[in-house]
Design brief:
Blueprint (H helix, E strand, L loop, with lengths): L5 H6 L4 H24 L6 H4 L3 H21 L6 H17 L7 H15 L6 H13 L1
Amino acid sequence: MFPSSTQKFSWIFSDEEELSKLREKANKAFTLAHAVKVQNLPEADSSDFFLNANEERSLVKFYEMRMREFCRRFSPQMPKPVVGTAFHYLKRFYLNNSVMDYHPKDMLITCVYLACKVEEFNVSMKQFVANVKGDLAR
């Protein structure tokens, strides 16, 4: 049943090259959608205004490290399955979306909160917001 499932089709990738192609496709889609604005500027080159796929990947890696720190500092202590799910959501989101469209800092918080709910780590909104505010002060 699994070999013919949509889960296998949508969530299992053959190799790293396939993932790179998806990231490049998301980057190109954003660039093409917003290139009209750049063309109206004198002497504008789109590479001066937009990140390329490798730069986007580096930015996502940076925010993955920030997520690790946020989860490590979270009070009460966050279980490892919640952290793993949050990482999975963040990485998965940026396969089909650009960091130029959705800021990684916003998505980091969203992915952690969603992971808490999915993995049944019962934390109230008040506790979660207190952790976010506490993390921003550091």
